[in-house]
């Protein structure tokens, strides 16, 4: 399968690329208002940038989309640094050639020091201490994409090094299929410990051995331990997006990690657009279309909404808090977006259980009730 990866672009790859590129551009736009120095896009498992069928893949798409966005480009001109790395020398050379051919002008401008961005391409095998040290020393926000085939090369330590930096975020590939098969394999215990933590691995094994669990429950237990570890005990956001095979078995996850509530809010709305099955498991899912499985393609929001309303009212009765805090606490493990929580708050308001207020604008004007204003300024009071 790995050898065939670059033969042809699959639908799963398309979705993955969309999540990464859409989020990157949204992130870059925000960062451009808050940071004056260099801004970094780092892809440590980049590949050649092209499939054999001629379609371009993430590295070239990211470059192209950034270049086409003139408004954004004006804001980040001379600040943006792209760093691509792959352990495969041929891929690195191909990517170099692809970039040079496609972006001849950039290269020329770059040499004249007028380039809108800088591009570095390296050839290291991860994990690599030198690379980690370079990342630690980078002074500026990083958006990193870590997309190996297997699971070696990704570690909690690497994700921490990236996400601990200011305004920095990371998307990585969680190879569920291979990892779940390796949990009880002592030969790869060190690599698996990088994913769950050494202490947690024992606990995970115990939980999995406990009873006759079904594969869905097994997956939830694995995901639960994984999210707990990567979120540093729920002190930062971990948003998983599940990719299923046509037979409905999970193949892998794309996982987003951020410290910032706005980051998770934006990523969730991007994931919601790409998800074709908001499962009750509480995360976004993409299942390749297949006539036999079309009955699975439904949105669970309508059936879940009443439960969420009841839970919120029970938990916050008599309390007042900012909507942003409420969403950060409650929307964290659900696939539901701010727009959907807006709907929930509106229904609770109609039922007389909630009152929403807004501070006036600087010029003393009243603020309109909208989901954007609710997220940015809204204060929600749960009536007794
Ligand atoms: C799934 S492909 C990446 C595809 C790429 N993100 C894209 O969208 O075109 C995985 C890449 O990771 C590289 N790779 C695998 N293990 C690696 C490691 N330990 N260190 C660096 N690169 C690695 C492979 O050579 C391969 O090109």
Shape: globular
The radius of gyration computed from the alpha-carbon positions, rounded to a whole number of angstroms, is 22 Å
Structural class comes to alpha/beta
What are the secondary-structure elements, in order, as H or E? HEHHEHHEHEHEHHHHEEHEHEHHEHE
Q: What's this, in brief?
A:
With 384 residues, the chain is an alpha/beta fold.
Provide an overview of this structure:
It is a single chain. The protein is α/β, with parallel strands linked by helices and 384 residues long. It folds into two domains: 11-174 and 231-296, Rossmann fold, CATH 3.40.50.150; 301-382. It has 16 helices and eleven strands. It has helices spanning 11-34, 58-68, 70-76, 89-102, 104-111, 129-137, 156-163, 176-182, 189-196, 198-209, 215-230, 261-274, 301-316, 323-330, 338-350, 371-377; strands spanning 39-43, 80-85, 117-122, 142-146, 169-174, 237-244, 250-258, 284-286, 320-322, 354-357, 379-382. The strands form two sheets. An eight-stranded mixed sheet has the order 3-2-1-4-5-7-6-8, with helices on both faces. 33% of the residues are buried. Bound molecules: S-adenosylmethionine. S-adenosylmethionine binds at residues 5, 17, 45-47, 57-58, 86-88, 91, 125-126, 147-149, 152-153. S-adenosylmethionine is lined by residues 5, 17, 45-47, 57-58, 86-88, 91, 125-126, 147-149, 152-153.
Task: Break the fold down into its secondary structure elements and pairings.
Layout: H1 11-34, E1 39-43, H2 58-68, H3 70-76, E2 80-85, H4 89-102, H5 104-111, E3 117-122, H6 129-137, E4 142-146, H7 156-163, E5 169-174, H8 176-182, H9 189-196, H10 198-209, H11 215-230, E6 237-244, E7 250-258, H12 261-274, E8 284-286, H13 301-316, E9 320-322, H14 323-330, H15 338-350, E10 354-357, H16 371-377, E11 379-382
Parallel strand pairs: 1-2, 1-4, 2-3, 4-5, 6-8
Antiparallel strand pairs: 5-7, 6-7, 9-11, 10-11
The structure holds S-adenosylmethionine.
The site of S-adenosylmethionine has 18 residues, from loops.
């Amino acid at each position: 399968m790995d050898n065939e990866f670059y033969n042809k672009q699959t639908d799963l790859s398309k979705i993955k690329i969309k999540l990464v590129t859409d989020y990157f551009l949204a992130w870059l736009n925000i960062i451009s208002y808050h940071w004056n120095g260099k801004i970094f896009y780092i892809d440590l498992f980049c590949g050649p940038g092209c499939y054999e069928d001629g379609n371009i893949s993430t590295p070239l798409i990211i470059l192209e989309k950034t270049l086409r966005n003139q408004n954004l480009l004006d804001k980040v001109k001379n600040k943006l640094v792209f760093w691509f790395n792959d352990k495969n020398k041929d891929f690195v050379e191909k990517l170099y050639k692809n970039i040079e051919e496609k972006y001849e002008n950039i290269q020329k401008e770059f040499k004249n020091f007028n380039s809108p961005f800088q591009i570095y391409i390296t050839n290291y095998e991860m994990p690599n201490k030198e690379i980690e040290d370079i990342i630690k020393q980078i002074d500026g926000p990083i958006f990193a994409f870590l997309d190996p085939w297997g699971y070696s090369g990704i570690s909690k330590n690497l994700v921490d090094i990236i996400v601990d930096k200011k305004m920095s975020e990371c998307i990585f590939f969680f190879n569920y299929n291979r990892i779940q098969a390796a949990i009880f394999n002592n030969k790869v215990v060190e690599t698996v410990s990088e994913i769950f933590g050494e202490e947690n691995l024992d606990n995970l094994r115990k939980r999995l051995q406990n009873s006759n669990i079904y594969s869905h429950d097994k997956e939830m237990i694995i995901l639960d331990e994984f999210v707990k570890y990567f979120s540093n005990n729920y002190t930062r956001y971990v948003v998983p997006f599940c990719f299923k095979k046509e037979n409905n078995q999970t193949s892998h996850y794309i996982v987003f990690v951020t410290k910032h509530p706005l980051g998770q809010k934006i990523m969730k709305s991007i994931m919601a657009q790409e998800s074709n099955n908001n499962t009750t498991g509480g995360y976004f899912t993409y299942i390749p279309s297949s006539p036999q499985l079309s009955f699975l393609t439904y949105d669970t929001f309508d059936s879940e909404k009443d439960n969420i309303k009841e839970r919120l009212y029970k938990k916050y009765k008599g309390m007042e808090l900012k909507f942003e805090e409420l969403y950060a606490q409650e929307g964290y493990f659900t696939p539901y977006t701010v727009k959907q929580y807006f709907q929930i708050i509106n229904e609770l308001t109609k039922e007389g259980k909630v009152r929403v207020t807004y501070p006036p604008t600087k010029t003393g004007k009243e603020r309109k009730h909208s989901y954007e204003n609710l997220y940015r300024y809204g204060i929600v009071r749960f009536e007794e």
